[in-house]
């Protein structure tokens, strides 16, 4: 077989050579040890937590080493592409702090190693396809779907490994005459890799997460170019990672079964193999067993879930870092105010088996993150969230920023700040009672008669003075307690509850319910100071009227 003649026959219009492409995409001028890596998602419209785990791993490796992180869109599978998915992808990753030095953007490309969308790189792949054919490393295959199905059925019946290999690779050594006859008849063809591997052979391979692996050689003649001339992921990523000068490939460990083929392909193309970082899956407890997070079963897999729930970006970022490196939490305790980007992240500390996603822990991390923010920051982030997910609440926050910030400042600062909020979604239930439109009607404990409650509220109104400090204010509450036959001595009440009609806690609850509509709220004295004299009195008077 004259392989050069076959290459010219299959790719008559390809005039570029690998050498011209090497000149067009030269080696990058970067410091020694700089990592060049990428995120290379498919534009399916679904951006998930695994994307963020991989993206953050790649971003930390690149930027801590003085390297480059780029975004490449792997859109070779047109059937799976969702319109607008690239925009969703870029916006979502940007929202979570993944910033790219170059690559695909919403408007096009940014960088000298593009195009960064694979469907725009067809001509580049054809140069390397022609090279492989000319060297006898690839060949056209004219098998029909029916023939491939029949082959698969025969392999299954014989209990053999399925695939296009060995005696089943029916176009592997066909004559030039056979190939020309099919081309003349206009028969569609795919380009297949001519594997030189054997499943009898194994070799050792070092993965930066999995460690030393024993790999069985690939013996399958995989497809490189589909019948429309667009490459498969396998071929495209090898060419792209070489020409974009990728040093490290970060991806999920579901790609491990194809690693033998990828190693073989890089070698056949004459490319230096990048270092691989295969990340384990995110899992969750399902009863007493673990399982992978599922797109179908688990809403928490989608990144849109965290935005809609109102988890701050800082909290999600912080939580993901605890998943990525087991020593991150110790570092954070020792450096409570340090920027997370100063942590010495290492891919070697990733859990080879994957991580267990813990929603309760994320919530706890988020409470801590929000507690560290000042009121102005909380107001800004909460308002931004509410504009998208609760416009009516947003309109209240925007109407009087100082009022909202005063509410959000309650218990903030100091050595032990309050941790009332884990998400922005929880803000309205927490603080909504400050706004008359969200004030709920109070429900009092039925063991207390209405006359007693009215008596407490009327006495409180008569003594209420906005100028009182918190101590004077509570002294008045205690005085009312004693005056109506309740007790301020909680120990005595616990010793003999039948001796008293109620306690100072019950009296405080009557007032709290009248003012806030809730049995739980932030410090009641502070609440009244923020509401002001007129609104506080009006609410108490309204409750008295409703009870009368």
Features:
single chain; 548 residues; alpha/beta; Rossmann fold; 4 domains; three-stranded antiparallel beta sheet; 10% strand
Helices, strands, pairings?
Layout: H1 3-10, H2 18-24, E1 36-39, H3 49-64, E2 68-71, H4 85-95, E3 102-104, E4 109-110, H5 122-134, E5 138-141, H6 145-157, H7 176-184, E6 190-193, E7 202-207, E8 211-216, E9 223-225, H8 233-243, E10 248-252, H9 259-269, E11 275-279, E12 282-286, E13 289-292, H10 303-309, H11 313-324, H12 328-334, E14 355-356, H13 359-372, H14 375-389, H15 391-399, H16 401-408, H17 427-431, H18 450-463, H19 470-483, H20 490-495, H21 504-516, H22 524-531, H23 533-547
Parallel strand pairs: 1-2, 2-3, 10-11, 12-14
Antiparallel strand pairs: 3-4, 5-6, 6-9, 7-8, 12-13
Helix pairs in contact: 1-5, 3-11, 8-9, 11-13, 14-15, 14-16, 18-19, 18-21, 18-23, 21-23
Beta-strand segment tally: 14
* Global shape: elongated
Shape-level CATH architecture of the largest domain: 3-Layer(aba) Sandwich
Supply the number of structural domains: 4
Name of the CATH first level of the largest domain: Alpha Beta
Name given to the CATH homologous superfamily of the largest domain: HUPs
Helix content: 40-55%
Structural class: alpha/beta
Uncertain regions spanning at least 5 consecutive residues: none
Strand adjacency order, main sheet? 1-2-3-4
- CATH T-level topology of the largest domain: Rossmann fold
Distance between the termini: 103 Å
Question: Count of DSSP helices?
Answer: 23
Q: Tell me the strand percentage band.
A: 5-15%
Largest sheet: 4 strands, mixed
Overall pLDDT level: 93
Cα radius of gyration in angstroms: 33 Å
């Amino acid at each position: 077989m004259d392989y050069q003649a076959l290459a010219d026959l299959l790719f008559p219009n390809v005039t570029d050579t690998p050498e011209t492409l090497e000149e067009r995409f030269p080696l990058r001028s970067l410091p020694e040890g700089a990592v060049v890596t990428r995120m290379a998602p498919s534009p399916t419209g679904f951006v998930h937590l695994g994307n963020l785990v991989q993206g953050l791993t790649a971003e930390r490796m690149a930027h801590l080493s003085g390297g480059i992180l780029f975004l490449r869109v792997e859109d070779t599978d047109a059937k799976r592409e969702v319109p607008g998915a690239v925009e969703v992808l870029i916006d979502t990753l940007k929202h979570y702090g993944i910033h790219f030095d170059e690559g695909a953007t919403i408007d096009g490309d940014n960088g000298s190693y593009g195009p960064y969308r694979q469907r725009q790189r067809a001509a580049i792949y054809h140069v390397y396809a022609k090279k492989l054919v000319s060297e006898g490393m690839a060949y056209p295959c004219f098998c029909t779907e029916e023939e491939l199905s029949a082959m698969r059925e025969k392999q299954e019946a014989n209990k053999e490994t399925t695939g296009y290999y060995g005696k089943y690779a029916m176009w592997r050594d066909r004559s030039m005459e056979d190939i020309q006859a099919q081309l003349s008849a206009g028969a569609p063809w795919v380009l297949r890799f001519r594997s030189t591997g054997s499943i009898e052979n194994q070799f050792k391979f070092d993965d930066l997460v999995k460690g030393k692996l024993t790999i069985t050689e690939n013996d399958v003649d995989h497809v490189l170019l589909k019948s429309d001339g667009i490459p498969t992921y396998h071929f495209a990523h090898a060419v792209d990672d070489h020409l974009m000068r990728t040093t490290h490939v970060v991806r999920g460990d579901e790609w491990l079964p194809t690693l033998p083929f990828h190693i073989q392909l890089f070698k056949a193309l004459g490319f230096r193999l990048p270092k691989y970082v295969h990340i384990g899956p995110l899992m969750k407890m399902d009863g007493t067993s673990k399982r992978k997070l599922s797109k179908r079963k688990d809403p928490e897999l989608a990144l849109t879930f965290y935005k809609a729930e109102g988890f701050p970006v800082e909290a999600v970022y912080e939580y993901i870092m605890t998943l990525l490196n087991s020593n991150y939490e110790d570092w954070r305790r020792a450096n409570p105010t340090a920027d997370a980007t100063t942590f010495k992240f290492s891919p070697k500390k990733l859990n080879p088996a994957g991580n267990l996603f813990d929603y309760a822990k994320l919530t706890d991390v988020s409470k801590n993150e929000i507690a560290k923010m000042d009121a102005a920051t909380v107001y800004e982030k909460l308002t931004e969230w509410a504009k998208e997910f609760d416009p009516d609440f947003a309109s209240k926050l925007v109407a009087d920023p100082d009022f909202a910030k005063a509410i959000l400042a309650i218990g903030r600062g100091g050595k032990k700040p309050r941790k009332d909020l884990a998400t922005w979604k929880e803000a309205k239930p927490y603080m909504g009672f400050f706004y008359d439109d969200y004030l709920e009607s109070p429900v009092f404990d039925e063991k207390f008669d209405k006359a007693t409650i009215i008596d407490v509220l009327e006495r409180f109104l008569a003594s209420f003075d906005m100028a009182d400090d918190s101590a004077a204010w509570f002294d008045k509450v205690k005085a009312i307690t004693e005056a109506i036959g309740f007790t301020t001595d909680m120990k005595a009440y616990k010793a003999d509850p039948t001796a008293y009609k109620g306690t100072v806690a019950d009296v405080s609850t009557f007032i709290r319910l009248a003012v806030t509509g809730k049995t739980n709220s932030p410090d009641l004295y502070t609440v009244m100071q923020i509401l002001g004299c007129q609104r506080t009195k009006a609410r108490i008077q309204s409750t008295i009227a409703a009870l009368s």
